[in-house]
Design a protein that fits this description.
Blueprint lengths: L3 E2 L5 E2 L9 H35 L4 H27 L10 H16 L5 H31 L3 H35 L1
Antiparallel strand pairs: 1-2
Helix pairs in contact: 1-2, 1-3, 1-4, 2-5, 3-4, 4-5
């Protein structure tokens, strides 16, 4: 396959071919994967503390149940990540996830600034959780893709399981918001 020309007229290598630094790039690529794995591991472990705080602040039984269900799933996400570290021959290790810390801080500020036992608070909790879910969906989707590129189908499969659970939680939160919470919050 001939090399294509970029907008500047220089030849680009096809994406599937490796350059002379192929081994180094694979190492850097694996390092990227491990750094992102540490990041989401930190996020999941910290969500184990954040979800119960949000759950205690809810008014809607449906939202309380959804958060309880997601807390249990999050425990499994942590275990899956630990299994992935083991498969990769690494000790489970966290790296502070600045993005998730920011999302959790934003959720806490919202809880502090809203009235208890209100559907407005529940609407805000759903918004906060969906922001978190979208971050996790992006992280797990990217990690799954990286694992596949590295030839770790077993790791990619574990990441896919978590990705699907995160997508399910996001859909469930949307359903709760649209079926009751948003309208009741708007009426307060």
């Amino acid at each position: 396959m001939p090399a294509s020309k970029s907008a500047h007229g220089s030849a680009r290598r096809p994406a599937h071919k490796s350059n002379s630094h192929g081994h180094m790039n694979r190492t850097r690529f694996a390092e990227l994967f491990m750094e992102e794995l540490k990041d989401i591991y930190w996020a999941e472990k910290n969500l184990l503390k954040a979800i119960p705080k949000m759950q205690k602040a809810t008014t809607s039984d449906e939202l309380t149940y959804a958060l309880d269900e997601h807390l249990e799933e999050t425990k499994h996400h942590v275990m899956r990540l630990e299994e992935i570290f083991e498969i990769m021959g690494k000790k489970p290790q966290t790296k502070k996830c600045e993005a998730m810390e920011g999302l959790m801080m934003e959720a806490q500020v919202f809880l502090d600034d809203t009235e208890a036992d209100s559907m407005v608070r529940d609407a805000g909790i759903i918004i906060s959780m969906q922001k978190i879910e979208h971050y996790e969906i992006a992280s797990y989707g990217c990690l799954r893709t990286l694992a596949n590129v590295m030839g770790h189908a077993d790791v990619a499969e574990l990441l896919e399981q978590t990705l699907e659970e995160e997508k399910h939680t996001d859909s469930l939160l949307t359903e709760i918001a649209e079926s009751t919470v948003n309208e009741e919050a708007a009426a307060e």
